[in-house]
Amino acid sequence: MSNAAKRRSEHQAIVASIRAKQKAKQRKWNLLVYGGFGLLLTAIITIVAITVVGSLQERNQAADEARKPIQGVQTFTGLSRNHVQTAVEYPQEPGVGGDHAPIWTNCGVYTTPINEQSAVHSLEHGAVWLTYKPDLAAADIATLTGLARDKPYVLLSPDTNQTAPVKTTAWGTQLELTTADDARIPVFIRAYAQSKNAPEPGAACTGGTNG
After folding, report:
1. CB 208 within 8 A of CB 104
2. Which residue, among 90, 160, 171, has the nearest Cα to 132 in the 3D structure?
3. What's the rounded Cα separation, in Å, for the pair 20 and 137?
4. What is the DSSP letter of 114?
5. pTM (2 d.p.)
6. Cα separation of 134 and 114, whole Å?
7. Are residues 102 and 152 in the same domain?
8. Is 163 found in the same domain as 84?
9. Separation CA 164–CA 177 (nearest Å)
């Protein structure tokens, strides 16, 4: 073999060795990248699956709780639902249904008493009304506020005429409570907010009157 041919052969061998090393390095890099991506994707899918399953379990548990009878709940039937401009005397305090004002009370948190007849109209639309005696402790009012805030079909207000410290009311349904941290309150909200017990569930609880 001539010197020139020998040099070409050596050069080709060097180039082939370099290319082989580059390919091996690229394969290793691809394995790291795609393998890592695969692990990351698997982890994401696992986390999402756990979250979805957990959320479904929580919803199912909440639905099961909502279907169970709530101890102490009183129910009232045969309630009229006419829109009237005159004063209405309700047998319950606050009213659980019956004739009411033409305009409903917007759902939300109120720190002063609200119009009872307008609030009863909100109950007709599927709202839950949380009420408390004005002398309830500030910490208890804060607890009720936390339960009512940001819920589209919940009203919260003081009631100067009720005797129980706290009450939860929906159309045709009422529960008297002695404390604001009673575990039945969130269960009542889940069970009766937008309940089919209301004559018009899904009707607006906005666009009415404040208070």
Report:
1. yes
2. 160
3. 79
4. -
5. 0.70
6. 12
7. yes
8. yes
9. 6
